[in-house]
Design a protein that fits this description.
The protein is mainly α and 128 residues long. The chain has one domain: Metalloproteases ("zincins"), catalytic domain (Zincin-like). The protein contains 4 helices and 3 strands; from the N terminus they run αβαββαα. The protein has a 3-stranded mixed sheet. Strand 2 and strand 3 form a beta hairpin.
Amino acid sequence: MTLDYVKLDPDLRLGICEKVGIYAKRFSIPEPKILLTTREVLDMPREMTEGARTSAYKYLGLSYNRQNLIFLNIRKISDEKDLENTIVHELIHQRFPYLSHGKRFSKLVRQGLRGKNFPPYQKRKLID
């Protein structure tokens, strides 16, 4: 799959959807809805893209966790490696919503890129 960040064709869209599906399954999360252009972000209801709506064009990707939605900015992604990194990065945000960027987050992204499977998320039980 070659990336042509000027033209988003149906084959590229399908390839991205397949990659997202594969990683979502590995990370034990439901497959998110994918937005690939800033126009698609702006066409979504405001409450779904609240917080990063008009600034979405600045980023390679965004994760809207509560809505199970990710934005992959195809215009900014220059090659397949960047695409894969961005997909995994945004899905790690979905799988670990409590984790912000840092060493642990970067480690999880690297593990995800290497093919690690993550068990489904379970809330920790409080010990009495």
